[in-house]
Amino acid sequence: SSGINAEYGVKDKGSKGGMGVTLLEYQGVADTQAHEKLVTRTVVRAHVGSNPAKFLSDLGFKMDYEVVMKGKRYKTKQIETTIYKVQKVPKQGDTTNVTDISSMSLVEMSMQVHNLADPSIVELLNLAETLKPIVKLEKYDPNRASNSK
């Protein structure tokens, strides 16, 4: 079947003058062919006010599932490394009784570049090589994952 796989993350940036500001991040379809060792995708970020669910609903999106990603984020220069567990939300909006989906943690390394010729990509690849002895790193292919369901 055809369609667009999309993910979004909501990050509360706190209060500014009494109003909560929410940053919505839309991650486009992953391109696994653009680079031999990396997955690339277009990312669009926008401030959407205090009700991201209504904003997305108004654009025609429907809630598919809800998870909590609990972990830590580290940043050095341009590279962002996130280590987290994915937790299942049993009832939409109720994050009090979440359960781990797996006993394993996920490690995600990312950086933003304007093109694949950017020399800073080498830093990301070097970090991946450094982590190889302690982390099983794979190039995630969302097409392969959706076909195995």
Model regions low in confidence, pLDDT < 50 over at least 5 residues: 1-10, 12-18
- Which geometry do the CA atoms define? globular
* Overall helicity: 10-25%
Query: β content, as a range?
Result: 25-35%
Radius of gyration: 17 Å
The major sheet is characterized as: 4 strands, antiparallel
Helix/strand class: alpha+beta
Enumerate how many helices there are, as a single number: 3
What is the element string, with H for helices and E for strands? EEEHEEEEHH
Taking all residues together, what is the mean pLDDT?
A: 75
Termini Cα gap: 13 Å
Number of strands: 7
Quick summary of this structure?
The chain is built from three helices and seven strands. It has helices at residues 52-58, 121-131, 142-147; strands spanning 7-16, 19-27, 43-47, 67-76, 79-88, 99-100, 106-110.
Topology:
Layout: E1 7-16, E2 19-27, E3 43-47, H1 52-58, E4 67-76, E5 79-88, E6 99-100, E7 106-110, H2 121-131, H3 142-147
Antiparallel strand pairs: 1-2, 2-3, 4-5, 5-6, 5-7
Explain what this protein looks like in three dimensions.
The chain is of the alpha+beta class and 149 residues long. The chain is 16% helix and 34% strand. The chain is built from 3 helices and 7 strands, in the order E-E-E-H-E-E-E-E-H-H. Strand 1 (7-16) and strand 2 (19-27) form a beta hairpin.
List keywords for this structure.
single chain, 149 residues, three-stranded antiparallel β-sheet, 3 helices, globular
